[in-house]
């Protein structure tokens, strides 16, 4: 059965798009790898009526709400191939299933590529965060660092003046 839309990505953007499509009585297949960017964080912030709630609970509640629409199909997996053209797309998932749809919606999100800094991965989402707007308030103006990855890093650090005290190491000396 061809779907009206195949949404690749089942996190917040994919679910928000799916909701609007389902309410328009479209048949929607959501392919979800379960790799939400904030899966390591214990609290989400910046969502009205969800401030401070566990991101996993927000995702579960959203999926429960989507599940009330009869035209939703949810597949846990990864899209590994997509081909076709207008009104005739084929998407293959990592388990070999082939799905047909009239449209493809890409909501694959962001994947953080962490530098090889000892202890960083273990602290990611717990005491090291990707977003000062999501987690900065809780720092209570404590110490803040920015991992400098390019010219934009100085600008990012300057945005943190209301969040905490900044430290801008000179990366040129550390590379010598």
Automatic annotation (TrEMBL):
Pfam families associated with the record: Pyr_redox_2
FAD/NAD(P)-binding domain ranges (all copies): 3-165
Signal peptide: none
Top-rank taxon, per record: Bacteria
SUPFAM superfamilies: Nucleotide-binding domain (SSF51971)
Keyword line: Flavoprotein, Oxidoreductase
Entry-linked InterPro entries: FAD/NAD-bd_sf (IPR036188), FAD/NAD-binding_dom (IPR023753), Ferredoxin-NADP_redctase_2 (IPR050097)
GO MF assignments: oxidoreductase activity
Protein name from the UniProt record: Thioredoxin reductase
């Amino acid at each position: 059965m061809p779907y009206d839309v195949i949404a690749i990505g089942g996190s917040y953007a994919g679910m928000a798009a799916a909701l609007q499509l389902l309410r328009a009585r479209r048949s929607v297949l959501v392919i979800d790898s379960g790799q939400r960017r904030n899966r390591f964080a214990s609290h989400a912030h910046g969502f009205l009526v969800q401030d401070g709630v566990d991101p996993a609970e927000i995702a579960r509640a959203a999926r429960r709400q989507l599940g009330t629409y009869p035209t939703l199909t949810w597949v846990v997996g990864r899209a590994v191939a997509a081909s076709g053209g207008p009104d005739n797309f084929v998407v293959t998932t990592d388990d070999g299933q082939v799905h047909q749809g009239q449209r493809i919606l890409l909501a694959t999100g962001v994947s953080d590529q962490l530098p090889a800094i000892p202890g960083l991965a273990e602290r990611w989402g717990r005491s090291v965060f990707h977003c000062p707007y999501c987690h900065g308030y809780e720092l209570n103006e404590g110490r803040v660092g920015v991992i400098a990855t390019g010219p934009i890093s100085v600008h990012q650090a300057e945005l943190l003046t209301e969040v905490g005290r900044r430290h801008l190491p000179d990366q040129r000396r550390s590379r010598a």
